[in-house]
Design brief:
Shape: globular
Low-confidence stretches: none
Radius of gyration: 18 Å
Helix content: 10-25%
Structural class: alpha+beta
Length: about 230
C-alpha cells in the first residue's frame, strides 16, 4: 500500500507507470521490530531528484515503511508513506547524515486493544494535546507534511500543528500487526471540525503503536488531503 496521498494499491502504481528516471536515496534512522521478529517498521530521511551529479536533488522528506517477514524468511514491504517538506541547500547537504537507532523490540504478546480508537476518544473528549500527553512514547516521531519531523515527546507536544484541532471523526482503513500483536500499524483518515478561522480539513495518517501493558504511540505520520 502506498500513500498518494490517500492509501492505494502499491504494486499497481509501480507496474502501471514508466520509470520517470528519478533517483531516490534514503537512510533509516528509527526502527522497531516485533519481539517475534516477524513484523516491523522503519523511518528516516529521503531525497528525490534527477541531478545527483550536480549536488542539487529535488524533493525531500521523511518516510515510514512497514515490513512483514514471510514464512520463508524474506521481508516484504506492506505499507510505504512519507511526509515531504522543503529544505534549503545547506540543510540538504546533511539531510541523509543520520545515526540509526533501534527501539527496544516488542515485548512479546501485546494486549488486544484498539489503540487508535482509544486515541480518537481521548482527542474528541479532552483535546489532541491531552491525547498526546496520554499516549506518546518518550522517543515518539511526529512526521507532519510540510516540515521536518518532531522527535521526542516534548517536541511533539510543543510543535504539533494539530494541537488545537477538534476531531470530528477518526476513521481506520486498516490495522496490521505482528503475530503477537506487540507492534501494530494503523492507517486511515482524520476529519477535523471547522473553526472560526479554519475550514473543515481532512488528513490521512499512519500510526505505529508499541502495544504492551498500554498503547504507546511510537510514530505518527500525517498528510493533508483537503
Amino acid at each position: 500500500v502506498l500513500f498518494r496521498p490517500r492509501p492505494v494499491p502499491g504494486r499497481a502504481v509501480y507496474l502501471g507507470k514508466p520509470d520517470p528516471g528519478t533517483q531516490l536515496r534514503w537512510r533509516p534512522d528509527l526502527a522497531h521490530v516485533s519481539g517475534g521478529g516477524d513484523f516491523g517498521w522503519a523511518s528516516g530521511p529521503w531525497m528525490l531528484g534527477t541531478g545527483w551529479a550536480t549536488g542539487r536533488p529535488g524533493a525531500t522528506g521523511h518516510y515510514l515503511t512497514v515490513w512483514r517477514r514471510e514464512a520463508g524468511g524474506q521481508w516484504r514491504v506492506v505499507l510505504d508513506g512519507g511526509a515531504p517538506y522543503p529544505l534549503d541547500e545547506e540543510a540538504k547537504a546533511s539531510h541523509l547524515s543520520v545515526t540509526p537507532r533501534l527501539r527496544e523490540p516488542g515485548g512479546g504478546r501485546g494486549k488486544r486493544a484498539d489503540c487508535a480508537a482509544e486515541f480518537f476518544a481521548t482527542w474528541r473528549e479532552d483535546g489532541r494535546a491531552e491525547a498526546l500527553d496520554e499516549f506518546v512514547a518518550k522517543d515518539v516521531r511526529l512526521a507532519q507534511a510540510g516540515r521536518p519531523p518532531l522527535d521526542g515527546a516534548k517536541a511533539a507536544r510543543r510543535g504539533d500543528l494539530l494541537r488545537e484541532a477538534v476531531l470530528s471523526a477518526g476513521r481506520v482503513t486498516r490495522s496490521i500487526s505482528s503475530e503477537s500483536n506487540d507492534v501494530v500499524v494503523t492507517y486511515g483518515e482524520y476529519e477535523l471540525a471547522a473553526q472560526p478561522d479554519v475550514p473543515r480539513r481532512r488528513f490521512v495518517y499512519a500510526q505505529a503503536w508499541d502495544v504492551g501493558r498500554k498503547c504507546e504511540l511510537a510514530l505518527e505520520l500525517i498528510t493533508p488531503v483537503g
